[in-house]
Design goal:
The chain is of the alpha/beta class. The chain has a domain of about 230 residues: NAD(P)-binding Rossmann-like Domain (Rossmann fold), CATH 3.40.50.720. About 45% of the residues lie in helices and about 15% in strands.
């Protein structure tokens, strides 16, 4: 049996779809307050009978910070896909994010060692690579550099990744994948929010550069490295490097909306996050832009996925093709009922 954490999130729900479609026996961990409705929604995008596949999943409520609950969740498990994490650039979430992402991974690694788990795949992030002070092409040999430029999310994922490396030294058969920005449908107010922003008339862009990858390519990379048992390694998973202007323009084209036309230089981004911090403090609402968001949007990160391409014979879906499919689902899902 396979255990999946983070099964109600964007990546986890797509992984569950692929595993159940392949006839695997699955147990999925979720928080007590999490709703499996989003997972069903994701399944419904790709099959007319989502409940047939959903009924193959054994859901279990377990907090990653509770070692006892994790121990129970691992009973009878042979393989683990650890997708569960908090992703946030809001200061109010930093403490919880550091705890869940690092301590939660430590608990899962420790219990997996004790339980003799045969295979363990950890979903890390390209943000754990030393990109803050690395101007060139980033690959698996680009190592973490402590820097004030690193986001708290980056720090939390790097801490989690260290726990997995430590587990490997203690005998855990583990492999790490490091996706860039994952593109997928359904979470229009969260991970897929860029599509809603462009639909609602996003006017601004920066000249920063980032990597992007289709959600199913990320899933295929995970199952691929597990099938080949590529333990003790890490793999960047990224299809293309695009400027934010290029990304927003592609989304706008396939949503039939005007492309963003106003360039925001770094100094204006700095003003924006400070103004938003004041507004947030006075109103008690979340800021539209944080310091970390503004900084990341102005940086240029270029990633190489040659290692996984060569190792698995992997071909990535072009970003525009991915965006086209997501936009079609968005228009059906949201455009008629905003």
């Amino acid at each position: 049996m396979i255990l999946v954490t983070g099964g109600t999130g964007l990546l986890g729900s797509h992984l569950l779809y692929e595993l159940t479609r392949s006839g695997k026996k699955i147990r999925a961990v979720k928080r007590e307050t999490s709703d499996t409705g989003m997972t069903r929604k994701i399944f419904s995008y790709y099959t007319a009978g989502p409940d047939i596949l959903l009924n193959r999943i054994q859901w279990i409520d377990a907090d990653l910070l509770d070692p006892g609950a994790i121990e129970d969740a691992l009973d009878g498990i042979e393989e683990v896909y650890h997708c569960g994490a908090i992703v946030s650039f809001f200061p109010r979430d930093h403490k919880a994010m550091l705890a869940v992402n690092i301590k939660g991974t430590e608990n899962l690694v420790n219990q997996s060692i004790d339980k003799g788990i045969r295979k363990f795949c950890f979903v890390s992030s390209v943000s754990t690579l030393g990109r803050a002070d690395h101007p060139g092409l980033i690959d698996e040999q680009t190592h973490w550099i402590p820097s004030r430029k690193n986001s708290v999310y980056s720090v939390s994922k790097y801490g989690a990744e260290r726990e997995v490396w430590r587990g490997m030294e203690e005998g855990l058969n583990a492999v790490i994948i490091q996706p860039s920005v994952i593109l997928g449908p359904g979470f229009w107010k969260g991970n897929s929010g860029l599509f809603r922003l462009v639909w609602n008339g996003l006017r601004f862009y920066t000249r920063g550069v980032n990597g992007y990858v289709d959600v199913f390519d990320t899933v295929r990379s995970m199952t691929g490295v597990m099938e080949k048992e590529l333990f003790g390694k890490r793999f960047i998973v990224s299809s293309e490097n695009l400027t934010y202007e290029e990304l927003f323009t592609l989304i706008a084209r396939h949503l039939e909306k005007p492309a963003p036309s106003i360039h925001v230089p770094p100094f204006l981004s700095g003003i924006a996050w400070r103004v938003e911090a004041i507004r947030s403090f006075l109103t008690g609402s979340l800021p539209e832009v944080t310091k970390e968001m503004a900084y990341t949007a102005s940086q240029k990160y270029f990633y190489s996925s040659e290692y996984i391409r060569e190792t698995l014979g992997f071909e990535f879906r072009p970003v525009e093709e991915s965006i086209r499919g997501i936009c079609e689902l968005f228009r059906k899902d949201v455009a008629g009922d905003r």
